[in-house]
Prior knowledge:
Strand content: under 5%
Number of strands: 0
Order of helices and strands: HHHHHHHHHHHHHH
Distance between the termini: 9 Å
Helix content: over 70%
Largest sheet: none
CATH superfamily of the largest domain: MetI-like
CATH architecture of the largest domain: Orthogonal Bundle
CATH topology of the largest domain: MetI-like fold
Low-confidence stretches: none
Radius of gyration: 24 Å
CATH class of the largest domain: Mainly Alpha
Number of helices: 14
Amino acid sequence: MSRSSSLQYYIATRVLLAPVMLWFITTVVFLLLRATPGDPVDAILGPRAPEAFKTELREQLGLSGSLLDQYLNYMGNLLHFDLGESAASRGQSVWNIIQTHFPATAELAVGSMLVALVVGIGVGMLAASRPNTAIDAGGRLFGIVTYSIPMFWMGMVLQLIFAVQLGWFPLGTRYPLSLPAPDGPTGLYAIDALLHGNLLQLIATLHYLALPCLTLGLLLSGIFERIVRVNLKQTLASDYVEAARARGIGERQILFAHALKNALIPVITVLGLTFASLLGGAILTEVTFSWPGLASRLYEAIAARDYPTVQGIVVFFAAIVVAASIAIDILNALIDPRIRY
């Protein structure tokens, strides 16, 4: 099999598996929601509501009929990209909820990932370039601590220190109520402020975004630190690096021009898995910081037993994770031809 045909076969396989993965995730979410105890109709209307109202709401939520009928009806609507209507927010479609709240989550996710990559790769490089020293041990300790600290605890501690005690950052919400929020096509306040050239709005956006991104990014940075440190150590001990040293090439040039490039290949693979962790961690981050994102809205929907909203948001998150995983697999195949075979 030629190199180009093997790459095409690899990409086609990954793309064809995506609908299967989404179907499996959707089915599991559907069954788990209906296996939970309690009646969502009673949770919304109350146990004393008239039976006629309950019957009407069950039909709107797709809870009438047998489990198989509910499942077939839900999958049929999903194939037409119909996520249904929120039960808790009557008259509001699930797609509208996603469009309203997802930009805040996306902004938090991108900012947190940037913090995680910069801190994780930086600490990992520093530790690997000085093996068997106090700096190396400190890097190892940093990776273990940041990976094991609970997110909600870290968020509350940072809020108490930097928001309550020092007053450097604001608490809660996404933007100051005293200023008009950036209005633009993306819904991402930082991007929209840049598009309009409004420096005041950009500074306010970054000010409110800094502490949540720092919290989630620091906790995820331990994953990248451990991978970079281990792989960079192995790369620096390889034969071609020793040959470069023998030719008189400086350590800095060896580190950045030769070793780091190969050591970062596993980081690309972990990016996809970390992205899934980022979405999961975003729920705790948004709840802890009162961030008005889609993950926080999912938490509210779970508490209200809003089946359509929970199913729609989880499927939306699943589609993003599957798409990111496929993109990472393809990028790895382009970088490392051995993966294709």
